[in-house]
Amino acid sequence: MSDSAIEVDGLRKLYGDTVAVDGLDLTVRRGEIFALLGPNGAGKTTTVEILEGYRRRDGGRVSVLGIDPAVVHGKRGTSTDPTARRWRERVGIVLQGTGEFDELTVGEVVTHFARFYPGADDPARVIDRVGLSAKTRARTHTLSGGQKRRLDVALGIVGRPELLFLDEPTTGFDPEARREFWALIRDLARGGTTVVLTTHYLQEAEALADRVGVITAGRLIAVDTPQRLGDRDSALATVSWRTPEGSWESAQSATPTALVAELAARFGGEVPGLTVSRPTLEDIYLSMITT
Ligand SMILES: Nc1ncnc2c1ncn2[C@@H]1O[C@H](COP(=O)(O)OP(=O)(O)OP(=O)(O)O)[C@@H](O)[C@H]1O
Prior knowledge:
Keywords: Antibiotic resistance, ATP-binding, Nucleotide-binding, Transport. This protein is an alpha/beta fold. It is built from 9 helices and 12 strands. The chain has a 6-stranded mixed β-sheet, with helices on both faces. A 3-stranded antiparallel β-sheet has the order 2-1-4, with helices on one face. Strands 11-10-12 form a 3-stranded antiparallel β-sheet, with helices on one face. Helix 3 crosses helix 4 (123-129). Bound molecules: adenosine-5'-triphosphate. Adenosine-5'-triphosphate is lined by residues 15, 18, 20, 38, 40-46.
């Protein structure tokens, strides 16, 4: 079995004259959490939808769990085509916001979706994992925005997928729900699930991803761990402190430890208001997409 869950080589997608994806190369390893970052319109959703078998491509080579998703395009999980059916059973998808199923309750919807998968998880357990147990009997149209999103996630994982796609999964979540969601995703990854997510929350990418990829104008311009992206780990540190007169000073340094030692000697001990910081993932990301 290949080490890669996803292999993409020279992917291209046009909408009329618009080049949405322009020769994109990407490898996602089995078992990793991979975050795709990029500005609005960069081509993330188009790329992910091609990988999910929901959109046709115009060029390039794509393999997802060993299958070209073009083969399953237009064939649903209930399809009689055995290749399409088996592949769809192995892939979980959380699209950008659905979460409403007329008069059905949360419990009914999750139980209904579970029937599509031979190895489905227990619906009650899944509802509990996404923090919706108290809403099991609630009709889906009565859920809040964040609760509908949790239901989307429940439907994405109820089939116990090998590979899970999450498109902006925590939009509308409150901070506590977001942290609970991160714990759930880490738990799935520990259990061997490969996770590909798109997000505009850099903090989310940093908290979750083993590697991040930055897409601009339909190309992948950088791939690395959140800690090393754009040489972040070797970027200059900013040291700030308060002077005896009460004003603030700061200096950039490649050797912040030495600078702090020097300041400590100068102050004869504690340095007032001392902070040492490196560029955040957001700083690095913004410098990448604006150059
Ligand atoms: N169905 C479509 N028809 C025509 N153009 C489209 C279609 N879908 C996307 N595009 C265009 O393709 C480009 C890439 O869009 P895409 O939705 O993949 O970007 P994205 O990175 O997911 O953006 P966002 O962060 O806003 O979700 C954009 O220029 C968009 O306008």
